[in-house]
Amino acid sequence: MSVREKKLLALLLIAGFLILNFFLYSIYVEKKNLYSNDLVSANSQLQQAFTFRESSAEFAEQMTWLAEKEPKPATYQETQNALQLFAESQAKNLGLTVKSQEPLVTDETGTYYHRAQVKINLSGREQALYQWFDAINDPDAFRTTFQIRMSPNTKDDTLIDCSATLSQWFPPIPPTP
User: Fold this and answer.
1) How many whole angstroms separate alpha carbon 144 and alpha carbon 113?
2) Spatial separation of the C-alpha atoms in residues 9 and 11, rounded to whole Å
3) pTM for the predicted model, two decimal places
4) Cα-Cα-Cα-Cα dihedral of 97, 102, 108, 114, to 10°?
5) Around 30, how many Cα atoms within 13 Å sit in the side-chain half-sphere?
6) Using the 8-state DSSP alphabet, how is residue 155 labeled?
7) Beta strand 143-152 with 160-170: parallel, antiparallel or unpaired?
8) Non-local CB neighbours of 94 within 8 Å, separated by 6+ positions
9) DSSP-derived 3-state class of residue 138
10) pLDDT single digits (tens) 34-44
11) What is the pLDDT of residues 141-176, one digit of tens each?
12) Bridge partners (DSSP) listed for residue 169
């Protein structure tokens, strides 16, 4: 082999070596970036898990309360009827006069709970009304009065006319497959 051929062969080997190194380096950088991104993602998930663990301890008492108090799944008609009957019986027990009751449209926008609503108009003494509100507003039963309008009775100054919207939250019956 001549000197020129040896130089050409050496030049081709060096060029091949450089090209091979270039491709290997680009694969190395690509894999390094991939693993670096995976590491960053894993670290952020780990931080999120630590945050959830810390916040779960903060909400453990509330989650225990919910597990103990959560009502059984029901239809809105059952829940609305039970709410209406409870409100009426409490009003009668406390000496209030129920003027009218109006079932309202059920709020089904919640993911886990729906809300049955009843609007009730009644009249009675102030103390009896407050006792009625106390009986209706029961977090353990997922029941509340969220809209109250009170005004003096036009015929008797000792009585108060009240219009209240009552709500009862309930988990809906899951659909059968």
Assistant:
1) 14
2) 5
3) 0.65
4) 20
5) 6
6) S
7) antiparallel
8) 124, 128, 131, 132, 135
9) strand
10) 999 999 999 99
11) 999 998 999 999 888 888 999 999 999 999 988 877
12) 115
Reported as a single tens digit per residue, the pLDDT across 24-83 is 999 999 999 999 999 999 999 999 988 888 887 778 888 888 888 888 888 888 999 999
**Tokens encoding 68:** 């103990």
Query: Residue written as tokens 């008609």?
Result: 77
Local structure of residue 160 (DSSP, 8 states)? E
Query: Which tokens go with 75?
Result: 């239809």
Contacts of 95 (CB under 8 A, 6+ apart): 124, 125, 128
What residue type is assigned to position 116 of the chain?
A
The single residue listed with the structure tokens 């009986």 is 135
**CA separation for the pair 140, 25 (Å, rounded):** 65
